[in-house]
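A quick aside before the break. I want you to see a complete sequence-to-structure record at least once, exactly as it would be stored in a machine-readable document. Don't worry about memorizing anything.
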Amino acid sequence: MKMLLAGLLIFLGVHSVRMFAEDWRQRMRARLGKGAWKGLYSLLSLAGLALIAWGFDLAREQPVVLWTPPTGLRHVASLLTLLAFVLLAAAYVPGNAIKARLHHPMVLGVKTWALAHLLATGMLAHLLLFGAFLVWAIFNFSISRRRDRRDGVSYPPGRGVATGLTVVLGVAGWAVFAFGLHGLLIGIKPFG
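That is the input. The structure line, written in tokens, reads:
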């Protein structure tokens, strides 16, 4: 469990700097240079992600069961993860109405993904992993929306074609992951 917690602290810590230490972040970017800052950020993120994966794998070898979710929640989780993939696609497809309306669809996608997994699983390691990401995403979304209002950020209205493409890419990504990659990478087949 220590590796998982260390990975979460590093990964989510790095991804929280802008939320809680914006001035320090700006000073460090100026001092190190944009490229060096991005490199350091990326290295720490990868180290945290590797520790999360390793720690989560170790924790699953000796599972601590907290509760057994009803089977129906797996169906709810499948629908929520589908929505999470569409939100993730909305972060990257330019000019879509989802991003225009929600402003930070990736963070909402993380929140939805984490909630889905909390509903479908009842192990301690799952609670730590997905609970940490859910709490992080809640804070991140709230702070990001406040920052947008403070800075007067506006998002252009979305176009129908871009929105349709966003939904298609999100559904396709979800299908590839749910029916193939999740089993290969995580060792759990959601639909099999």
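Two observations worth writing down. Residues 77 and 117 are 6 Å apart (CA to CA). DSSP finds nine helices and no strands in the chain. We'll return to this after the break.
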